[in-house]
Amino acid sequence: MFKLLLFIAILILIFGYRKKQKVKGGININTILMAALVVLFIISLLTRFQN
């Protein structure tokens, strides 16, 4: 279950990175926000499994 969630998160990060590469002239803010939300979600899952 946890490996599946991690795999999905990695896919989202890769998709966001590819979308960011298509945007010319700077970094896409939406991609950064999406990546930050995914990281926060993973951290919350890690702390939940440790407890």
Structural class, please? Answer: mainly alpha
Computed CA radius of gyration, to the nearest angstrom: 13 Å
The number of distinct helices, counting runs of at least 4 residues, comes to 2
The number of domains:
1
**Main sheet characteristics:** none
Shape: flat
Record field, number of beta strands: 0
Poorly predicted ranges = none
Overall mean pLDDT stands at 72
Helical coverage, percent range: over 70%
Amino-to-carboxy terminus distance: 17 Å
Provide the succession of SSEs: HH
Strand content: under 5%
Give a verbal description of the structure.
The two termini are 17 Å apart. This protein is mainly alpha-helical and 51 residues long. It has two helices and no strands. The mean pLDDT is 72. The chain has one domain.
Put the structure in a nutshell:
This protein has 51 residues and is an all-alpha fold. It is built from 2 helices and no strands.
